[in-house]
């Protein structure tokens, strides 16, 4: 029956559903006349057909595949032999009609020819025998036909192929043949099935190395063989698909071995186990983490060759900011998408040096903070900053993560306030979208990473004892729906702006903190615990770090006082003051050259000398001055010009010592073999004599 | 994430629980929470509790269910509970009581309704040697000697057994509490003391009779121990930490009960009397005979040979054994306690935390926690009062700074700790507390000698004979002496509740727990409700100050107020 006629037989509601299911039909509304033949013409276009097939759930997709395997006409009894109940078949046929992909036909299902053509390898059985047989010589085909017990040899090559294919369709015969396979042949067949039915020669040879010896036997010709690959080839149980490259088990053989195309049929979507998710991560945590990372990356950081952050850098960031190592990359990507970090391409490659044969490796790309963008970002409210981070992520998912998108859609379809167990969610996704997820395992991977990502963003449910309950908070729903900041901000859960300082040197923020508070505390105390209350530990070391970072003791005390309504315990204030007092008593600076003299007057004279003013001599101690920004030889020259007589101290000689005066060694010392001479031999002799007496 | 600001609890994902102490509902919450979580830190404002398998099992032993525990958390928690917590509590709680020790005739059996659980533990290497033949799918025979060791092994496997095998009654002993003491003053148990003793005794049933009572210092642990003895009415062995403690127990027993003096014996390094109520020190029990115990046939023999006085545990038909300061119970006593599981056992302590992490042995051998006194309540009712700690910092004299800078690490501390700059501050403090009873504590004998001479006060060191010590303590108690200088060593065995001021000049504490012990004694709340003070004088910017930092943290965690002041503040206060 004509496709258009089939369409004409649809009821009104079915037709309406069809038009809704196949968006390409909207083109009809623009046409002056719209008849069923126009509709049929549109629906038969390959792109739309492929899209419609890809939109089918696993059950209807499987029914479609089974019908294709049956040549486009799926009869009730064949369907039943494949385990498909008649009422399921009837329902599936009606549904496929609403997609324009198939029609109920005398208790069975009929597919239009263009649909059959659009389905490739139904049931992933592999290519049909014909495609492999076509590569063989007529002689080889004759060998196969005779080995398979054909009474005669057909006249033409194509007849011979048909003949062999017909034999292979006899499932019982094929199974019997396989049962009788000699050991090596059986192992090859098993290995090839384990590799998915089609495999490159070398991959298969890794599993069953003995087939190497058979490679010389040729590929187009065929000789009778007692065992091994040759035995299988003589019976068309295994065929070359591309000569010398890929081997395959033909679809007919695979079907015979499987028995049924699909072991099970699941006409209904798998149910979800619904439960309220625990939203135990605050969205502000994301802002805190990213802010911490940006602080850490004030100086650009080199990326490794692959363009990623190196493991060591991840480790460093994790240690410095408390972000789990596994999340560093993700957070960095968020910051990049939000324009807060930028990947700087390496400068033009430095020319390889002289005789070196190896090309110089290119300078690594660097990750650098976009200072202006960060400054703007930091001025925003916490909800605004959060949205800037997750907004980029949302667009990225919509654009280039179709699988995660499907998982999100499914999560958003859950009733408000509920979540679903991830295992059930994965099974359901795999059923709904067989095209995107080959099996539940593949779906589980996507679901888990989606749930983990949502949790990290502060809008997803958390892991429980038995597994994740994935869910999206209201804020998350609105954000994923693309709502603007004004609508999101009221939903953003409140943050804690105050802390409690306890006498055991802890600073406790009773809940998710304002990012400003969190980042300030991170500078002066060590984070001990983070969820949901944040506990920081103050110590001499942490305070010293804050002072090193430019904070003052008074600033630290003020910060704590202003944020801690219960007051800062006296001993904590005392500690801060104490560390502040001791900080910086030993100072370190950069000096390129020093001028030292035993006589302070000489140093004072050099420092005051107008002729040496340009050198910038700084007196550090009475006998020591430093000079910066010049070279040794210029300094010597200048000193000499001004009439001084400087000498150069070698690297081995002692470092400048501002306290002690160096005294020239007494002349006697050398004569004495290095032993110091007593200051006054006569007095000593007298004492010795007195003692002895 | 939603927050309810009107709730006092924050449940952390690392199994700690923060309680906002000043919250109006904090007390209601604490009462529930303390049943299944251990107090870890109690500085002002925010207290930290920790939920551990042991704390959950303690709660289960007291009849609390997992659902009730999770219920308490949900009721008081400010935020949604971390998802894994409820699961964990249910899992751990579900393990308690699935195995039980029961008596069948004269046989002891380990039973379970779930043969799989029984099978799992019986197959464990540590348990296999402690059980006998299989009686049925859900029961195995347990030899009497293995009762304690089996419980120890099971708890280490994560399957704490409920011991319902009962106790031997012990030889009976007539004793009752007096109604008037000290020549006519009426005496009665404080309500919480009666509650604690009842919680332990549990009507004499299988559900009680062994366990630990947790009470803060000063709450009257001795009184509660005695009240429990009255309920048990049987011969009792009391194990204590020191001779001084032993004598205090004896005095209290004679003061509060109608026991005759001959009915109470002391078994210590100095005296070895065994009476119907005998008080022994851990020290004498763990006295080890040198070189003994080698080449013995069995471990038990070897243990007995090694520790000759441990036999005391078996010498009399004790019906009750009281372990004072159970957190200090030494390992050999654990071993012997494992052998006497058919006797009732009472542990008394201020903390379940053990320095050696053997909390699970206390649980399996002494028993689960039966009572945890609400110390906030006791405090608000005026039964106990916390002390104030003050660290006075003095500068290092200029002439000693170079000595300190070039000294060896060990010597450095001595230089700093013995700085003469501390002396004027000490003088000032002593004058400030003229009316109080003051202990001056130090580590270095020459420093102490100097101070004793300077303050014109008696000095007690490890070399002072016990008789002389007791005499001095007695004079201090009566108020005749108001100032005592004691060395760190002597300080170990001091129990002077009358002291209300302690000034520490030098000396570091060993373990945290030793510290708790000493401070607990010195800082004990006073009968007259007066404020107790603990001062440390510390040389600024030296290792002396570093050690003081540890002490500061510890004290702050324990909830003491800790102030740091400059020497000038002390001396100027005095001047004004």
Unreliable segments of chain A (pLDDT under 50, ≥5 consecutive)? 350-354, 654-678
Shape of chain B: globular
What is the structural class of chain A? Answer: alpha+beta
Give the neighbour order of strands across the main sheet of chain A: 13-14-16-15
Gyration radius from CA atoms of chain B, angstroms: 26 Å
Helical residues, percent of chain A = 40-55%
Q: What's the helical proportion of residues of chain B? A: 25-40%
Count helical runs of chain B.
Answer: 25
Q: Given the C-alpha coordinates, what overall shape of chain A results? A: elongated
Mean pLDDT of chain B: 83
Instruction: Output the strand order for the largest sheet of chain B.
Output: 14-15-13-16-17-12-18
> How big a fraction of the residues of chain B is strand?
15-25%
What is the subunit organization of this protein? Answer: heterodimer
Task: Report the C-alpha radius of gyration of chain A, rounded.
Answer: 41 Å
End-to-end C-alpha gap of chain B: 55 Å
Describe this structure in words.
The complex is a heterodimer of chains A (693) and B (576). Chain A is of the alpha+beta class and 693 residues long. In chain A, 48% of the residues lie in helices and 9% in strands. In chain A, α17 (283-296) crosses α19. Chain A is elongated, with a radius of gyration of 41 Å. Mean pLDDT of chain A is 84; it is low at 350-354 and 654-678. Chain B contains 25 helices and 25 strands. In chain B, the strands form five sheets. In chain B, strands 14-15-13-16-17-12-18 form a seven-stranded parallel sheet, with helices on both faces. In chain B, α8 (191-201) crosses α9 and α17 runs antiparallel to α18 (409-417).
């Amino acid at each position: 029956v004509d496709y258009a006629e089939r369409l004409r037989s649809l009821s009104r509601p079915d037709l309406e559903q069809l038009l809704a299911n196949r968006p390409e039909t909207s083109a009809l509304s623009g046409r002056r006349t719209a008849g069923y033949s126009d509709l049929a013409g549109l629906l038969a276009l390959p792109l739309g057909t492929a899209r419609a097939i890809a939109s089918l759930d696993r059950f209807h997709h499987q029914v479609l595949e089974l019908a294709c395997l049956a040549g486009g006409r799926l009869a009730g009894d064949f369907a039943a032999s494949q385990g498909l109940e008649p009422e399921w078949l009837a329902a599936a046929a009606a549904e496929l009609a609403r997609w324009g992909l198939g029609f109920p036909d005398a208790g069975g299902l009929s597919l239009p020819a263009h649909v059959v053509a659009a389905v490739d390898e139904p049931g992933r059985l592999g290519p049909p025998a014909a495609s492999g047989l076509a590569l063989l010589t007529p002689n080889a085909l004759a060998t196969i036909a005779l080995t398979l017990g054909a009474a005669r040899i057909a006249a033409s090559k194509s007849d011979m192929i048909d003949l062999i294919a017909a034999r292979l369709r006899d499932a019982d015969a094929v199974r019997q043949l396989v049962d009788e396979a000699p050991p090596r042949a059986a192992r090859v067949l098993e290995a090839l099935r384990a590799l998915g039915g089609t495999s490159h020669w070398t991959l298969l040879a890794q599993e069953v190395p003995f087939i190497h010896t058979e490679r010389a036997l040729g590929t187009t010709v065929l000789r009778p063989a007692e065992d091994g690959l040759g035995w299988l080839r003589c019976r068309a149980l295994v065929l070359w698909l591309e000569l010398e490259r890929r081997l395959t088990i033909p679809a007919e053989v695979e079907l015979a071995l499987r028995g049924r195309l699909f072991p099970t049929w699941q006409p209904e979507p798998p149910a979800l186990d619904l439960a309220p998710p625990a939203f135990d991560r605050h969205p502000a945590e994301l802002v805190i983490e990213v802010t911490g990372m940006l602080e850490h990356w004030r100086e650009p950081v080199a990326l490794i060759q692959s363009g990623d952050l190196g493991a060591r850098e991840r480790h460093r960031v994790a240690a410095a900011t408390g972000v789990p190592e596994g999340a560093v990359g993700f957070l960095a990507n968020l910051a990049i998408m939000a324009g807060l970090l930028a990947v700087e391409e390496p400068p033009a490659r430095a020319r390889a040096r002289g005789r070196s044969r190896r090309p110089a490796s290119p300078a690594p790309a660097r990750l650098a903070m976009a200072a202006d963008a960060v400054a703007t970002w930091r001025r925003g409210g916490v909800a605004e900053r959060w949205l800037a981070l997750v907004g980029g992520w949302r667009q990225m998912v919509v654009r280039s993560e179709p699988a995660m998108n499907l998982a999100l859609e499914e999560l958003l379809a859950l009733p408000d306030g509920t979540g679903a167990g991830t295992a059930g969610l994965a099974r359901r996704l795999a059923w709904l979208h067989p095209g995107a997820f080959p099996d539940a395992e593949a779906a589980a991977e996507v679901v888990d990473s989606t749930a983990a990502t949502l949790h990290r963003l502060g809008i997803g449910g958390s892991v429980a004892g038995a597994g994740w309950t994935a869910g999206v908070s209201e804020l998350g729903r609105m954000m994923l729906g693309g709502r603007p900041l004004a609508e999101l901000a009221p939903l953003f859960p409140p943050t804690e702006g105050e802390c409690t300082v306890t006498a055991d040197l802890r600073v406790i923020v009773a809940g998710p903190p304002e990012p400003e508070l969190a980042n300030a505390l991170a500078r002066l105390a060590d984070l001990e615990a983070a969820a949901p209350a944040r506990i920081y530990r103050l110590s001499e070391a942490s305070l010293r770090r804050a002072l090193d970072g430019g904070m003052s003791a008074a600033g630290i005390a003020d910060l704590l006082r202003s944020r801690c309504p219960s007051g800062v315990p006296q001993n904590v204030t005392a500690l801060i003051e104490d560390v502040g007092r001791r900080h910086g008593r030993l100072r370190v600076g950069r000096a390129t050259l020093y001028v030292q003299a035993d006589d302070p007057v000489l140093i004072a004279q050099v420092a005051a000398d107008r002729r040496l003013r340009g050198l910038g001599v700084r007196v550090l101690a009475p006998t020591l001055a430093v000079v910066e920004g010049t070279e040794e030889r210029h300094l010597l020259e200048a000193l000499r010009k001004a009439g001084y007589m400087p000498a150069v101290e070698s690297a081995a000689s002692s470092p400048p010592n501002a306290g002690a005066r160096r005294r020239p060694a007494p002349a006697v010392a050398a004569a004495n073999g290095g032993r110091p001479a007593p200051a006054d031999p006569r007095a000593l002799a007298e004492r010795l004599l007195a003692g002895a007496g | 994430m939603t927050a309810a600001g009107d709730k006092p609890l924050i449940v952390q994902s690392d199994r700690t629980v923060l309680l906002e102490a000043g919250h109006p509902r904090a007390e209601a919450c604490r009462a529930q929470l303390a049943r299944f979580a251990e107090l870890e830190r109690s500085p002002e404002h925010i207290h930290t509790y920790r939920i551990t398998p042991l704390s959950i099992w303690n709660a289960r032993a007291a009849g609390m269910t997992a659902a009730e525990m999770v219920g308490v958390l949900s009721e008081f928690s400010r935020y949604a509970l971390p998802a894994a917590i409820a699961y964990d509590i249910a899992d751990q709680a579900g393990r308690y009581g699935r195995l039980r020790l029961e008596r069948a005739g004269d046989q002891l059996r380990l039973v379970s309704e779930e043969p799989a659980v029984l099978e799992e533990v019986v197959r464990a290497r540590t348990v296999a040697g402690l059980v006998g033949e299989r009686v049925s799918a859900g029961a195995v025979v347990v030899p009497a000697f293995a009762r304690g060791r089996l419980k120890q092994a099971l708890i280490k496997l994560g399957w704490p057994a409920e011991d319902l095998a009962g106790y031997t009654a012990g030889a009976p002993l007539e004793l009752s509490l007096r109604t008037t003491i000290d020549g006519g003053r009426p005496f009665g148990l404080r309500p919480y003391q009666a509650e604690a003793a009842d919680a332990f005794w549990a009507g004499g049933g299988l559900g009680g009779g062994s366990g630990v009572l947790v009470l803060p210092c000063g709450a009257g642990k001795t009184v509660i121990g005695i009240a429990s003895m009255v309920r048990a009415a049987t011969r009792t062995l009391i194990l204590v930490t020191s001779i001084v403690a032993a004598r205090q127990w004896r005095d209290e027993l004679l003061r509060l009960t109608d026991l005759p003096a001959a009915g109470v014996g002391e078994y210590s390094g100095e005296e070895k009397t065994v009476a119907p109520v005998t008080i022994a020190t851990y020290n004498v029990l763990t006295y080890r005979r040198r070189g003994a115990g080698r080449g013995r046939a069995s471990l038990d023999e070897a243990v007995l040979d090694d520790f000759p006085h441990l036999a005391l545990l078996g010498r009399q038909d004790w019906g009750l054994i009281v372990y004072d300061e159970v957190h200090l119970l030494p390992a050999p006593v654990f071993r012997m306690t494992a052998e006497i599981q058919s006797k009732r056992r009472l542990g008394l302590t201020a903390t379940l935390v053990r320095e050696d992490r053997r909390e699970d042995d206390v649980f399996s051998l002494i028993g689960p926690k039966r009572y945890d006194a609400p110390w906030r309540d006791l405090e608000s009712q005026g039964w106990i009062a916390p002390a104030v700690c003050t660290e006075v910092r003095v500068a290092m004299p200029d002439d000693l700074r170079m000595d300190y800078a070039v000294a060896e690490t060990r010597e450095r501390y001595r230089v700093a700790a013995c700085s003469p700059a501390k002396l004027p501050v000490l003088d000032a403090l002593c004058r400030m507390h003229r009316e109080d009873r003051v202990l001056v504590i130090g580590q270095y004998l020459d420093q102490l000698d100097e101070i004793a001479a300077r303050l014109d006060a008696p000095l007690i060191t490890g070399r002072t004979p016990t008789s002389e010590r007791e005499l001095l303590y007695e004079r201090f108690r009566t108020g005749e002496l108001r100032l005592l200088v004691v060395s760190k060593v002597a300080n170990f065995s001091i129990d002077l509740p009358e002291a209300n001021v302690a000034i520490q000049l030098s000396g570091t504490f060993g373990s945290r727990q030793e510290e708790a012990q000493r401070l607990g004694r010195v800082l004990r709340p006073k009968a007259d409700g007066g404020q107790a003070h603990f001062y440390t004088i510390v040389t600024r910017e030296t290792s002396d100050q570093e050690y003081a930092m540890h002490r500061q943290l510890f004290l702050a965690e324990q909830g003491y107020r800790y102030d740091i002041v400059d020497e000038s503040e002390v001396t100027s206060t005095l001047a004004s």
